[in-house]
Amino acid sequence: MRDIYNFSAGPAVLPEPVLQEAADEMMDYKGSGMSVMEISHRSSLFQSIIDETEYDLRALMNIPDDYEVLFLQGGTSLQFAMIPMNFMRNKKADYILTGYWAKKAYEEAKLYGKINVAASSEGDNFSYIPDCRDLDILPDSDYVYMCENNTIYGTKFKTCPDSKGKVLVNDVSSCFLSEPMNVSDYGMVFGGIQKNLGPAGLVIAIIRKDLITENVLPWTPTMLRYKTHADKRSLYNTPPTYNIYIVGKVIKWIQALGGLEKMKEINEKKAYVLYDYLDKSKLFEGLARGDSRSLMNVTFRAKSNEMNAEFIKAAGQNGIVSIGGHRAIGGMWASLYNAMPIEGVKYLVDFMGDFEEKKLSGY
Asked: Are residues 109 and 191 in the same domain?
């Protein structure tokens, strides 16, 4: 057990058994005399790593055979451009605005065509997920875009939006592998791995094969075409080899715990501990509406900005790090990603309780 609890929104805490196993193999991977960082991406040794990682991910998520799994660079933000470049064939799309990153994707997509806001909670500072049962969708829209879990605002979709038959594209960066999902509900599921799966620098994109074609915006660069990467099985260029290796280990860690159903059960228990405290607290309040609360990112604040700052400082001095909220919303956030143990959440709540007692008693 380490001396701190890291509540960072990403890069974030990783499972200790994974870190230890990677450390043990750092200088010599499977008798090769080399670190995975040194192995050629064209070698049979690395081919076995990427093949096994994809195989295990498909099994864990029950990914249908008619979907490609791509390991890509450039972070989630590059996908904000790649998606319209590859899918906006009518140059029209619908976006559901539920937070900072959904809006960033929306602003980027506007460079490539007509973008309609199908639903939004921006008017209430993204504190909830809007009703998406009857979206205002363009009749000739190429796709509908959503961000399932909103890191900064602590909200999450509880049901899949009704895209009215249009391709649904889902950014799952901050809830990737935190619970089961039906991949077939989406044309594309993608996410950066730096929150639940590994170190920063890799995106996993799961895309229905019929959507991956040469029919892209004509000036789309070779490296930004999904077909380029699908045709070469994510080895068109040198991929982030070490990241893929770590992802493979994290997937096996989740499998060993009991899979995604068990992962969801664990995450629900952790989130309950913190939300239950917030609902009873007289000093702290949660920022997300009750029906939209995320299991992964809990946002909250004290009674003043000064008290927020005092709490963040005191928390850091007591082994609770990266608890300060995003500049867009302030206050605090606690990211309860898969690798955060429930002991860390209980430690946070105990510290919050002590802090609250002192403040309310005048000490």
From this structure: yes
